[in-house]
Amino acid sequence: MLKEYNEGKRADRQIKDYLNYVSDSKKNDVAAEVILQIGDKEFWGQKTIEEWKAMTPLLKEQLEAFKAAVPEFKVASAVIHFDESSPHMQVVGVPVASGYQRGMKKQVAKTKVFTKERMEQIQDLLHDKAEKLILEHPEIFGEETLKPKEKGRNSDMSKEFYIRMKQKQYEDISEEISILEIERGNLIENQKEIMDATDKLVNEAAEKMADSEMKKEFMRYALLDEPKSMLGKIVSTAFKKFKVWWEQERKPRVLKEARESVLDKLKKYGERNNTNKTKSTHRINDIEL
Q1: Per-residue pLDDT tens digits for 226-251
Q2: Which residues on neighbouring strands pair with residue 185, listed in sequence order?
């Protein structure tokens, strides 16, 4: 089938290894697992290990009934377990569907083999088979009977088991809700911290912009020759007084300090250049020697 599919196709479109191809696919599963059992924890909790092991041939009969009902399910492994809450068989196989118009004519396809209608048919068949086995083996089941079939259900469970299962589901959901509530609270707290930090940055930036505008506005008034507004006159008069003080008191000292600083830097620069020249001369002499 794979050879037929690859025939005439470009090398980059051929399927070299179908197992790897399906394993890497997000649409298909390589295999599916089916659990076969009769009775639940409440029933088997009072039974002996010999009664558990007596289920071996019965589970094998269930398997044969299942294989006959679903021939497209190619069984790869069927293992009976006695180490859990009830004797059961774990069946692993590959569901193979045929008749595809695109791609390979046969493909691994769990959803196509196990449709809702097909699952209901399988449930009915295995329910009837289990009912027959219970009647045929009173040494194991005594007067136990299966509850009536219910539409849409894929398992036969006692009322106690069903209640316990629903309680477990409720507990799991409640735990998930609690975790989600905690995560939601953390997200709200983080969001508040981010908003507070953002507001702080925005406010700081706005303050700096406002301070810069204030200085610009002050200098605009300060440099007016003939201010007309009262505010302009106050600022202009104050600036002129400041300028007189600056020219007489502060500016001479600033100029002196700046000049000394520049001369000092020039001196250090000259000394560094002389040192470098001396080192260069020594290197040249060393080469000549």
Answers
A1: 888 888 888 888 888 888 888 888 88
A2: none
C-alpha 155/C-alpha 39 separation (Å) is: 10
Tell me the pTM.
Answer: 0.44
Hey, what amino acid is at 176? E
Burial 221-251 (b: 16+ CB within 10 A, else e): bbeeeebeeeeeeebbeebeeeeeeeeeeee
User: Residues 132-151: pLDDT tens digits?
Assistant: 888 888 888 877 776 666 55
Listed in sequence order, the residues at least 6 apart from 224 whose beta carbon sits closer than 8 Å to its beta carbon are 232, 236
Rounded to an integer, the average pLDDT of 92-121 is: 72
β-partners of residue 93 are 32, 75
Q: Assess contact for 76 and 94: CB atoms under 8 A.
A: yes
d(CA 237, CA 242): 9
Rg, C-alpha atoms of the chain: 45
Q: Which residue has the tokens 């000092």?
A: 264
Q: Please answer whether residues 108 and 94 qualify as being in contact, where contact means their C-beta atoms are separated by less than 8 angstroms.
A: yes
